[in-house]
Specification:
Layout: H1 12-17, H2 21-37, H3 42-45, E1 55-57, H4 63-69, E2 76-86, E3 96-109, H5 112-132, E4 135-136, E5 141-143, E6 148-151, E7 155-157, E8 160-174
Parallel strand pairs: 1-2
Antiparallel strand pairs: 2-3, 3-8, 4-5, 5-8, 6-8, 7-8
Length: 175
């Protein structure tokens, strides 16, 4: 405590060097998009004969909403930050917790059996890409390699069928 009875407040210089919570999410999503679209990303992990990812999006909402506003090529992969939890794992940091990132993979076609096989291939390729990227992602994030895959039921989408899966994973953040 200072002599005048007030606590010291961080200055503008110190605050400008630290990322905001939203910037932290954006940086992690950018890292994930670069990883999944890069040379060791999803397309490089696919077996021969499987079409490459048509659209890799960074859209923080359901793909269905984006499809109505823009042209999307299937299969489509969407990456976004679903949640940022500041649980103060490291007590003296302003942000210390987990960011939950989601990778949605969506395929479309006329044959429901082929869709299942196709979706499984893209999910497997995504998971292999994530496994290969364990470690430090940004100056504030570390990925341990854990993920959770949730498959959605087959549904109709226009004149074809649509099948999707959500791959959720946590990044430990501290800043």
């Amino acid at each position: 405590m200072r002599a005048n009875g007030q606590f010291p407040v961080s200055g503008a210089q110190e605050d400008s060097s630290r990322m905001s919570n939203v910037d932290t999410c954006n940086a992690l999503v950018s890292e994930a998009v670069d990883l999944l679209g890069g040379s060791s990303g999803i397309n490089s992990q696919l077996a021969g004969g499987i079409a490459p990812v048509g659209s890799l999006l960074r859209f923080s909402g359901p793909i269905d909403v984006y499809e109505k506003a823009a042209s999307v090529r299937y299969p489509v992969v969407n990456v976004y930050c679903e949640r940022l939890r500041n649980i103060q794992l490291e007590k003296y940091l302003s942000l210390s917790g987990e960011a939950t990132l989601v990778v949605e993979v969506k395929v479309s076609g006329t044959n429901s059996d082929q869709l299942e096989t196709s979706l499984n291939s893209y999910v497997e390729a995504t998971c292999r890409s994530l496994q290969a990227a364990r470690g430090t992602w940004t100056s504030t994030g570390t990925y341990s390699g854990n993920y959770d895959v949730k498959f959605q039921p087959l549904r109709t989408g226009g004149k074809q069928f649509v099948k999707s899966a959500r791959i959720e994973f946590d990044i430990h953040v501290s800043q």
